[in-house]
Amino acid sequence: MRRLVYLVPILYLLIPIAFATDDDCGDHKTLGEKCWLKVLDLHPTQHAIGMREVMNRKKKLEDMNGSDLKDYLKSRPVPVAIGPHEIPYMTDHHHLTRALWQAGIKKAYIEVQQDWSSLSAPAFWKKMEEKSWVYPRDQFGAGPHTHEFLPPTVMSLADDPYRDLSREVERAGGYEDTNIFYAEFLWADYFRSRIPVLKVRNDFDRSVEKALTLVHLPEAKALPGFIPPGR
C-alpha cells in the first residue's frame, strides 16, 4: 500500500500575525457557537488541497489590514464539527485555513455545525460519513483511507495539483458549481487519469485548455455539474 507522507513546507518564515479578538473559543464549544480558534487546533477532514489556490488566498490575506482581515474572516466562518475529546474537525474551508497558516495568521473564526463530543469515535466518524463531511482519498487519488490517516493539522495537508486544475476548469465554465460535497475532488480524479501530472505542474494553462476539452465527454456525464455538449 502506498505510504502517505505529509511534507511540512519549510521555505516560509512564518511571522505570526495577531489581532485583538474578544470572543476566543473556550474548552467546550457548543452548537451554533462562533468564536476564534488557533489555526493549528483545527483538524482536517481531507488529505489534500491545491497549493496554487492556497498561495492566491495567502496573498489576498496579506494585502488586508488588521480590521479588514478580521471582518473578512468573520464573514466566512470555518464550519466545524466537535468530535470526541472536544476535537474540532473542519468540514470545509481547508484552503482558507492553510492560507492563514502560510501567512502566519494564528487564529481562524469558526462556527460549530455539530457538537458530537459525547459520541464514541466510531459513532462520530459514522455521522461524518453520513453527512459527507470527510473525504477519504489522498493527493494521489488513492483510498479510501480510514480516518486515522487524516493529516493532524492544516500544515500537513498535501498538495494535489489536480485540485487546482478542477477549480480553474469550473471557474472557466467547464462544469457547473453544485452543492455536492467534494465535487472538485471528483473532477480532479477524472482529470488525473487523462492529463499527466508533470504537464499540470509545468504547463498549468495548457492543462486547463486540455481539461476543458474533456469535460463534455460521455464518460464525464455522471460527475456533478456536468454540462452536456452544445448547451
Structure description:
β3 (78-82) and β4 (88-90) form a beta hairpin. α5 (161-171) packs across α8. 34% of the residues lie in helices and 11% in strands. Mean pLDDT is 92; it is low at 5-16. It folds into two domains: 34-159, Conserved hypothetical protein from pyrococcus furiosus pfu- 392566-001, ParB domain, CATH 3.90.1530; 161-219, Orthogonal Bundle (Helicase, Ruva Protein, domain 3). The longest helix has 12 residues, at 51-62. It has 231 residues and is of the alpha/beta class. The strands form two sheets. The chain has a four-stranded mixed β-sheet. Strands 2-6 form a two-stranded parallel sheet. The N and C termini lie far apart (42 Å). The chain is globular and about 50 Å long. The protein is built from eight helices and six strands; from the N terminus they run ββααββαβαβαααα.
Concise account of the structure shown:
The protein is an alpha/beta fold and 231 residues long. It has helices spanning 51-62, 66-74, 94-102, 121-130, 161-171, 183-192, 197-202, 204-214, and strands at residues 34-38, 48-49, 78-82, 88-90, 107-115, 158-159.
Apparent shape? globular
SS-derived structural category: alpha/beta
Number of domains: 2
Q: Determine the mean pLDDT.
A: 92
Number of DSSP-assigned strands: 6
Q: What top-tier CATH class of the largest domain fits best?
A: Alpha Beta
- CATH topology tier name of the largest domain: Conserved hypothetical protein from pyrococcus furiosus pfu- 392566-001, ParB domain
Could you give the order of strands across the largest sheet?
Answer: 1-5-3-4
Assembly type: single chain
- How much is the radius of gyration in Å? 18 Å
What helical percentage do the residues reach?
25-40%
Number of continuous helical runs: 8
Which homologous superfamily in CATH is the superfamily of the largest domain? Conserved hypothetical protein from pyrococcus furiosus pfu- 392566-001, ParB domain
The major sheet is characterized as:
4 strands, mixed
Regions with pLDDT < 50 over 5+ consecutive residues?
5-16
Order of H and E elements: EEHHEEHEHEHHHH
Residue fraction in strands? 5-15%
| CATH architecture designation of the largest domain | Alpha-Beta Complex
